Predict the structure.
Amino acid sequence: MDTLLDIRNLSLEFRTPRGRVKALREISFPIRKGRTIGIVGESGSGKSTILWAILGLLASNAKVTSGEIMFEDRNLLALSESGLQAVRGEEISVVFQDPMTSQIPVLTYARQMFDILYRRPGMSAAEKRRHAVEMMQKVGIADPESRIDQYPHHFSGGMRQRAGIAMALLTGPKLLLADEPTTALDVTLEAQIIHLLQELKSELDTTVVVVSHNLGLIAELCDEVVVMYAGEVVEVGEVRQIFHDPRHPYTRALLECDPARIEKASRRLPVILGDIPDLAKPQTGCIYATRCQRAMPICRTDAPPVVGLTVSRFAKCHLLAGPHHDPQWPPPPDVLTVPMGESVAAPRTVGRAQGELLNVTNLNVQFQIMGPVSAWMRGITRRHVDAVLDVSLSVRPGETVGLVGESGSGKTTLGRTILNLVPAQNGSVTFENREIRNMAERHFKPLRRDMAMMFQDPVGSLSPRKSVRALIVEPILIHGIDCPDLDAEAERLADLVRLPRPLLARYPHELSGGQARRVGVARALALNPKLIIADEPTAGLDVSVQGEILNLMADLQAEHGLGYLIITHNLPVVRHISDRLAIMYLGRIVEHGPADEIFRNPAHPYTKALVEGVPNPDPDRRRTHVSISGEVPSLLRRPQGCDFVTRCPYAQDRCRIEKPPHSRITPDHDHACFFPLR
């Protein structure tokens, strides 16, 4: 009686030029009222497809071949288009992954919310506006009376996501679907959104379904978990059962691959070898058999039994029941069931005697915000903002330096300035003791062979008109390097980054996120560089693919002595791969030192907030408060004193009028705070 939505034996396929892709096969699980359900699994497992099937928003080439989706007493799959329109938004609503593409850029939030309430003819315009303002206030948007008349581009990423949640809850739906609601957000904003969803669920008595590959978010937010793999549900259970006693080998492998669950810093991370199978081909036996470390011959021929473990929990595996039942499965929690990957070279030691590969000193980058005439008419004397302010850091050969901070802190601008893609106003950038700041391009171009960049968007940074083979050898052609056999060189680089050679004939849109990332690594290595600046190298990747990319980068560093500057806001990842960390806030380095020391005992309040802001993939360690509230201030309104003063819980009067200088704790560890935590 308490079931709100029941998915029964749902099967779905997509018609493609390669044949029929069986995206969902015999999916069954209930969604109970007042609960938060998490759906987890790697990319391509069918998580989002379930949401689109519930909403009736499947692509035109999709076909439901069997099953039902019962919402209360209605089968959503049998409703007409007008019937679905009556359900969508009113009774079932959705929060999309990317608020910038799901919100209309040319309409104010007031207009967009009025359009959502068009089915309420009894409400006057004033009542609709009041209701919309109240909802924006509930999701934590300051000054909602005026901000509701602004456009999406006036909002930051976190505020846009809050506005998206407000619009989704505007009609008081019974069921809220959230598709990767925090993927594009920083750890601090992610924590705020998690707490917001928890509060709204309790206040509005809404049932929530969250799709995510972020295990920390699922552990913090959800009551029950559905684990999917390659279009099938492999395990269902209460959140504590799934995280503390996973029974399916895939569930266990996913949890073991999460960097946030690995307490001791490790240069190598566990990985699930192989890829999700091609669902356009016939599948027999267990769908996970090709990647499972415990696969038996029967797993490849016979479908596994559905084993009911408790009233509300089941898993599909031969190890759990039947003639091949293994009473020793699962092993103790401290036993790894997935490999760490094989290292191709012994790790290199980083010593001071090697000297500095890159040295940045007091770098200042300014962006002009208006022309001289506009400034004169407005009486403004300062026509620019400081995007990077007095930054100093260094990278030695064979060393990894992590550059960490929220969006808008200036990390990517710093990386682009180092590579001479953005001009700097003051300071020094030296590469192998040679000054390169604002160097003329004709002089800098030869140095680009030794300095490469991995861009944040692995597919967007690749030309869609070129094959992978052409993309990999493109840097060689641009720099006019003599190479008698480009095909052989492309194959060598593909082998180096463990990219299957058949993929060389494909185009970027035909690659997975992990494969596209490997192409980016191969391009960066084509000219044998000494320094690689990697901008969010694991953004948007599943935990197992993150491990593969980071292990690959560690192997290449060990073999070639590469220096890495890793730009990221993924703290669980950067903890494992970095020798030193530089914490950046509003364009300024606020703390810098050895990675293990900063994580163990941070000195700056902002660093502490970042470390505590990471959601822990353990439902027994849910946070009761948000480490810091608010967002990074606009560069147009930089505080007079300490940049962090508007969000710092330890701020005092001195912090509001003076900018703290850098102070040393040890020769390798410094901070910019008047009242450090150590």
Observations:
- The radius of gyration is 26 Å.
- The mean pLDDT is 88.
